[in-house]
Amino acid sequence: MDKTNVHEVRRLLHYRELIPRLEEALGKFSRRDSAEVLQPVRSSVPLHKHRGFMLSMPTYMENSGVLSTKLVCFYNREEGSSLPAVQASVLLMDPEYGNVKAVMDGEVITCMRTAAVSAISTKLLMRPEAEVLAILGTGKQALSHYTVFTEMFSFKEVRVWSRSGQGLQRFCQSVSGPVTPCVSVEEAVRGADAIATVTRSTEPVLFGRWVKPGAHVAAVGACRPDWRELDDALMREAVVYVDSREGAMSESGDVILSGAEMFAELGDVVNGTKPAHREKTTVFKSLGMGVQDAVSAQLVYDKWTAQASKQ
Ligand SMILES: NC(=O)C1=CN([C@@H]2O[C@H](COP(=O)(O)OP(=O)(O)OC[C@H]3O[C@@H](n4cnc5c(N)ncnc54)[C@H](O)[C@@H]3O)[C@@H](O)[C@H]2O)C=CC1
Ligand SMILES: O=C([O-])C1=[NH+]CCC1
């Protein structure tokens, strides 16, 4: 991917503009009004030789005139591999003519929209008196989650854990605010009010017995039907919210293998059709949706064309 494109997307995309658009898009998606959002469950092609998957994520928003698809490859790389875990491109098309209007880098979009949606779940489901955030993992998603969570909330402490000491050190050096490095998951999450799991693990790393009652967990990794980040106890005890019921039923190992009940989509809470159980332990199981990429890419495109027309 052309680096100028990556920098351009990073320059144009800001959480303060992105978050309200994503919140609105989640609400539209959960209304299942096909003129608002048409988003089939994404298709996935295994890349066995390379321990990866390619996802194709088409989305049409008829009322908004947005037609897009994201192509994203993600990999279960060996620890220490210098190859990226996620690579993506987003295509924006004209729905009337079918021509491609823009092809843009999808890596920044994926990092930012995923973290922004976790921040929305946390805003809606975390207890108001929350003080401690724990982040499990120290990769790209961990960084975007740190950025948006510290921008949006005033945590007294942000704890971070990685299974790699080097990764933990790199993370602590690269963030601009305070952070407490932790040597174990238990140390990081005991007493935490909000927990973001952003690892490439395929086995549970977060166990219910360590989680403070009433905490909110934004679970971002484990995007395959046989991959886990959370254990059965946590999934069964918590009130579980998802981005898409259909998506979670086909892709989330944490949902499918635990047999946990999905209480609501996040969009249902945005729409006020399902309650936000802030008083209980809550899990938001994030898998990522095409509509999140569509509104992010449209925002980049609108800002880019507005700036270009002034020059
Ligand atoms: N829900 C969503 O919308 C999205 C989810 N993802 C998923 O989020 C996760 C993180 O993505 P990135 O930050 O881009 O990856 P990354 O490769 O930059 O970071 C992964 C982190 O997980 C850690 N890790 C790897 N294997 C582990 C294991 N077995 N146990 C514990 N930690 C382990 C690494 O040390 C690193 O800190 C991936 O699973 C990815 O597929 C990525 C994009 C969107
Ligand atoms: O929505 C997304 O872009 C992804 N979900 C899992 C890996 C990438």
TrEMBL record:
E.C. no: 1.5.1.1, 1.5.1.25
Matching SUPFAM superfamilies: NAD(P)-binding Rossmann-fold domains
GO biological process: thyroid hormone metabolic process
Signal peptide: none
GO cellular component, one term: cytoplasm
Catalytic activity field: L-proline + NAD(+) = 1-pyrroline-2-carboxylate + NADH + H(+); Delta(2)-thiazoline-2-carboxylate + NADPH + 2 H(+) = L-thiazolidine-2-carboxylate + NADP(+); (S)-cystathionine ketimine + NADH + 2 H(+) = (3R,5S)-2,3,5,6,7-pentahydro-1,4-thiazepine-3,5-dicarboxylate + NAD(+); (S)-cystathionine ketimine + NADPH + 2 H(+) = (3R,5S)-2,3,5,6,7-pentahydro-1,4-thiazepine-3,5-dicarboxylate + NADP(+)
Top EC class of this enzyme: oxidoreductase
An annotated Gene Ontology molecular function: thiomorpholine-carboxylate dehydrogenase activity
Pfam families reported in the protein's UniProt record: OCD_Mu_crystall (PF02423)
Family (UniProt): Belongs to the ornithine cyclodeaminase/mu-crystallin family.
Quaternary organization: Homodimer. Binds the thyroid hormone triiodothyronine (T3); T3 binding inhibits enzymatic activity.
UniProt-recorded name of the protein: Ketimine reductase mu-crystallin
Organism encoding this protein: Mola mola
